[in-house]
Every structure is written in structure tokens, then in C-alpha cells.
Amino acid sequence: MSGIFSQLLQPVKLLTPLNGFRTFSCTASLNHIVKLTRLRVVDNSNLGKQAMLDGKPPRCIHVYKKTGIGTIGDKVLVAIKGLKRKALIVGVKGKKQDAFVPRFDSNNIVLLDDHGNPAGTRVLVPIPSRLRGRGEFSKIIAISSRFV
Predict the structure, then answer these.
(1) Is 12 left (phi over 0), alpha (psi -120 to 50) or beta?
(2) Which key words are in the record (predicted)?
(3) 3-class secondary structure, 52
């Protein structure tokens, strides 16, 4: 069991250089999620663990919101390992945010199944306490142990 967690903590492998250039993004971090944003799965679901170990993080392909911009507490559709899955945003990378909204180092999501239940049984990182007041996230609150 400890071998899996030690592999998760390893740095993500960079893609091979193409035409002598590195293949990573140099754009500034945003305070929201849009299409094609790379995300990090923070629950212990098998699909999420395998995608992160392979170095192919999921990407957002749709935000279930009128504006198309997702923040903490919004649902998104992600492409992960060639499959489409729904997910809930529990952390957004950014520089400046509203008061009393925690700032994260990565864009964190929790994968959901077809019925809206969490795919994993544990959340591995602290989640924002502002999600506690909303009833639709009660199952995610129940499987998480730390709040910010």
C-alpha cells in the first residue's frame, strides 16, 4: 500500500521534447477552470490513481455552468484515460482570490460516478470548508477528513 502512495508523491514526468522545445505551458495561473485545463485527482479511486501514475492527468472538457468558467464547488466533465467522467472541483490554483477562500497549489477534483456519488472512498487532501454548507456535497464531506 505504501508503494502506491510513494509513487503518487513522485514528480510528474515531463513529456519528451518535440523539435528541441519543452512541452509544458508557460501561461499564468488562473483563478478558475476552463476547457482543456489539466486537473489533479485527489481521491483514491482506481481510475484517478492510474491516470496520475501514468503521468496523464485528466483534462476538463466541459464546465456545467452558463459562463463556462468553473470555480470551487462546480461540476465539470473530464477526459481521463480515454473515458468521460463527471467531477467536482475542490481546489483551484491561483494567485489572488476572494476573502476566506483557500488557495491551492494545483487544480484539484474528486471524481463522481453516474449517480453523482464519489468514485473513491477517501479524499487525500484538505477541502474548503465552504462546501460544508451545501447539501449536494454531503457525501464528499463525509469521506473527507480534513478541511481548510
Answers:
(1) beta
(2) Mitochondrion, Ribonucleoprotein, Ribosomal protein, Transit peptide
(3) helix
Cell numbers placing 58: 485528466
Match 490513481 to its residue by C-alpha cell. Answer: 49
pLDDT at 95: 72
Residue 18 has pLDDT above 90, yes or no: no
Query: E strands, the chain, where?
Result: 40-41, 59-63, 75-80, 83-91, 108-112
CA distances from 36 to 25, 31, 108, 134 (A): 12, 15, 14, 27
Q: Kindly tell me if the per-residue pLDDT of 17 is higher than 60.
A: no
pLDDT over 60 at 16, yes or no = no
Q: Is the pLDDT of residue 7 over 90?
A: no
Q: Which three cell numbers stand for residue 59?
A: 483534462
Question: Under CATH, which number does the domain 37-143 receive?
Answer: 2.40.150.20
Single pTM value for the model: 0.78
Q: Delimit the domains of the chain by residue range.
A: 37-143
